[in-house]
Amino acid sequence: MQPALIPAASLIAHAQGSQNLITATGEFAGRMIFSGYGAGGDPTAVAVISDLYSIARSASVPPEALPRVAEVPDSVSGDFTVPHYLRFVVRDHPGIVAALATILAKYQISIDALLQKPGFPHSALSFVMTLEVCDSAVLNRALEEISRLDFHVEPPLCLPIFVD
Question: How many helices (H) and strands (E) does the chain have?
Fold first, then answer.
């Protein structure tokens, strides 16, 4: 897992301190958000799943009467198909944006917007780019290639943007 950008109006954006949130989407229930205080993401995830399992086992319905799950994933990953935010700090020279766009296009990733505020030194020029919806695993492959370019002052920062 990694940090992500969340719209300020989202319920998820209002978690504070050691509060944890987990979202789950069900075929019939839609999107659900569970929250509580905990020691971190992994212990909270284990506790939530353990609680749900315990509730299911103690239900008065016999196990064979419960609906079968259509698909149980073998694993859970941090891959998301969402828009992404990229921040670059570079030694400025002509062609940087073209080089980035070329690599992103190679992976079928579209740029949504680019912002560069004036006044930064050319030795450590900062700019941000937002990307249209793309798969994070594909983006990570593009970023591996981008990180090998010689103009970086800092490693690129990539954050998924979750929208409600």
Answer: 3, 6
Residues 93 and 27 in one domain: no
Element (H, E) at 34: strand 30-37
SS (H, E, C) 111-143: EEEEECCCCCCCCCEEEEEEEEEEEHHHHHHHH
Q: Which of 160, 164, 152, 154 is nearest to 134 (CA)?
A: 160
Entry pTM: 0.66
pLDDT at residue 69, as a whole number: 53
Cα 30 to Cα 21: distance, rounded to the nearest angstrom = 16
Burial of 135 (0-12, 13-18, 19+ CB in 10 A): middle
Instruction: Report whether pLDDT(77) > 70.
Output: no
Intra-chain end-to-end CA distance of the chain, in Å: 19
Number of domains in the chain: 2
pLDDT digits (tens, 9 = 90+) for 150-161: 999 999 999 998
Domain limits at 40? 11-65
Asked whether residue 38 is assigned to any structural domain, the reply reads: yes
